[in-house]
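Sat 14:20. Reprocessing the chain from the morning session after the first attempt stalled halfway. Input below, unchanged.
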Amino acid sequence: MILTWCLVLLALTSTTLSSNPGVKVRLTNKGLEYGRQLGIASIQQKLKTVEIPDFSGKARVVIGEVKYSLSNMRIVNVGLPRSAIDLVPGTGVKLTIGDAFISMKGNWRVKYLRDSGSFDLNVNGLTITTSIAVKSDETGRPAVSIVSCAASVGSVKVKFHGGASWLYNLFSKYVDKALRNALQKQICPLVNKAVEDLNTELKTLNVLAKVDKYAEIEYSMVSSPEVSKSSIDLSLKGEFYNIGKHQEPPFSPTAISLPPQTDKMLYIALSAFTPNSAGFVYNKAGVLSLYITDDMVPKASPFRLNTKTFGVFIPQIAKQFPGLMMKLLLKTEESPKVSFEPKNATLQTSATMTAYAIQPNGTLSPLFVLNVESSVTAHLFLSGMNIAGSLSLNKMKLTLGTSYVGQFQVGTLDTIFQMVLKMVVIPIVNVQLAKGYPLPALGKIQLVNPQLQILKDYMLIGTDVQLTG
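Finished this time. Tokens:
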């Protein structure tokens, strides 16, 4: 009945407890206007499918009472020159269509006189006013329904052709009234069916979207929408979970206050809570670890993962484990933490780096464990309907956790481990981040000229949209 993605962003009845959202979405008047334009085209096609059943009646003319029948009625043209969609604060949306017209053709027949022919029918002043409600279904997705529908037909004019048309045109007012009533009864059921058909499309909303084999992201509502005369603001959970196990992290979203921007159809604000919940999930799943071997180090690098290289900085390694290759294990100790400041996104990590010597029989001999505190800049961008990113190292701090080869100066290893992070670890992470993570979306929506800003505590995506089918 109206553009599907538009309806998704209307008044939803939440099934979750009210709290600060991880994601906020704003639909502006510009977005509603785009929905109206495409929605009217859809309604026009629906109205062309209106079926007026054959019917018969009686009318009195100068020669007495005649019985007539009308059949094979079909719509040949529909016009919707005036329409409007309005937000009803605190309620939902109202669609109004006025001054619409419909042209029809059909066949007529008068019984007993055995006379027949064709007719033209013009319907003018058609008005439709409907209110649409949206609520959550059993899966947490929105479902739409008609709250009220009113349709009125201003005038119906029929003109007979063929046979004694001049005679039957004299009692056309009787036919006009009968057709007007028959047509008026068909419109609201048609509107109701069109709205019901949207529920199939609404089920494509990724309320729970799988990210990979470890994580999924939930976009269910956490509170009722804020509907004003100019926009609709929705509050979504925007939280990552381990697949099949929804455990809340030990932190909560902070409040988001959207800036008063209205030049785009749609605004999506993702708070730092959303990526931080992802860090919590992946850390809990135990997948934020990486074994680093010498074949992962660029061949042009002068530093190799072997006891000879490390023996230059820690002589006892070369003495105790001469001529052996090495392996490093990088593992997070705490969930990574993302923070947003104006024009800047930063990721802080706390991890351990364990160094091993690889014995000829393949066993690993631990050498030392370092505590690694690092700060990286996150460069965020949009890839289709995904938010993606890449990292670059800002700074790193090493401290000695455990040594199995005696005491040594940790600072001498800074150059090696910065190289390992920059040339090995971060490129591997960036490959994964480039795949992106899904935004809240409907099946066939595309972003048009999106713009991404980093603000205090959240990132803001402003975009126009286009339906592709």
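The two ends are 15 Å apart (CA to CA).
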